[in-house]
Amino acid sequence: MAEDFTKSKFDAVDICSLLPTDQPTSDNFNFTCHNVTEAPLPFEPDTFDYVQQAMAAISYKMEDWPLVLQDMKRVTKPGGYIQLIEPDMYTHQLGPEGGLWRDQIHNTLRDQRGYEPRIACHLERLVSDLGLEDITVRYVSVPVGSWGLDIGHLWEQNFDAFLESAKPFLVENMQITNTIYQANTKKLKEELKGGEFKAFNNIYVVYGRVK
């Protein structure tokens, strides 16, 4: 976006940098490594016309969300917009084995870390509590698995990547073995590949204007 809109200035914030080190960044782009749950955003009040946050469902505990959003509002100019993009991690229409495994994982995320995997469904209320105006809520359903053709395959890859990357944490906190984890994940994947269950996730976009 910084390359496409050269007259605008872009500031990105994340807990670590995933930017390619072998490519120069645009002059109108700046990256800051920062943990917003430990300290306020490193910007003055009323700095930005537009603030967006995406894919933070398991980055914050449920109790952190109001504080983070309030700080996003602090750095947004009056009349500016805040937009949130989050997938609802509840995968609908899984098979019986997959649904059971999903629920066990979600309960662990809630009970052991205080995360809310379905935070996307709470965004409208959280944004409303900020006192924003002209709030808009939209979502799109994304298929998981071969029944959704190319998009379904891509989202299934995202699904698999999450299950693999979260394995060490979940094995420890669910107090199960790697073998059990892999067996339950295999059952879920087999149900997806069987074609009987047309699983999908909803991705939410919620935005509003700062008074």
From TrEMBL:
Gene Ontology terms, MF aspect: S-adenosylmethionine-dependent methyltransferase activity
Coiled coil: none
Matching Pfam families: Methyltransf_11
Cited InterPro entries: Methyltransf_11 (IPR013216), SAM-dependent_MTases_sf (IPR029063)
Residue ranges of domain Methyltransferase type in the record: 25-82
Annotated protein name in UniProt: Methyltransferase type 11 domain-containing protein
Species annotation: Mucor circinelloides f. circinelloides (strain 1006PhL) (Mucormycosis agent)
